[in-house]
Amino acid sequence: MTMIAVANVINGSREVGIGVILDLDTDVGKSSRICILMALEDVYGTFAYHNNFRTIIRPHFRDSKYDNFQAASDAIDLVQDIKLLHLLVPNNHHRQILYLI
């Protein structure tokens, strides 16, 4: 995956939005989404040992539908409309996305 965040300050914590473009029709895409959500739950969950984080990661998921043009469109939407600077993109789409950015 290739990584390209906008930070908002909410209640003293900095919220960092991360765009995640996956092929959610595939097992790898579904598993990746679940793993990302589980990892964030482990870090920020109610039973986390260190729950006084000043930076909070908020994923913005998009489904590329295994289409390079859809992935590129999603990347443009995340960067221009939602103002995200960080993107997680599957390897099969990263060249098209990087070309646009």
Second rung of CATH, namely the architecture: 3-Layer(aba) Sandwich
Strand content: 25-35%
Structural class: alpha/beta
Would you give the CATH topology?
Rossmann fold
What is the CATH superfamily classification? Response regulator
How helix-rich are the residues, as a percent range? 25-40%
Order of helices and strands: EEEHEHEH
Number of helices: 3
Give structural notes.
InterPro entries: Ionotropic_Glu_rcpt. This protein is of the alpha/beta class. It is 39% helix and 30% strand. It has 3 helices and 5 strands. Strands 1, 2, 3, 4 and 5 form a 5-stranded mixed sheet that branches. The relative contact order is 0.29.
Topology:
Layout (H helix, E strand, L loop, with lengths): L1 E2 L2 E5 L2 E10 L4 H18 L10 E9 L4 H14 L4 E4 L4 H7 L1
Parallel strand pairs: 3-4, 3-5
Antiparallel strand pairs: 1-5, 2-3
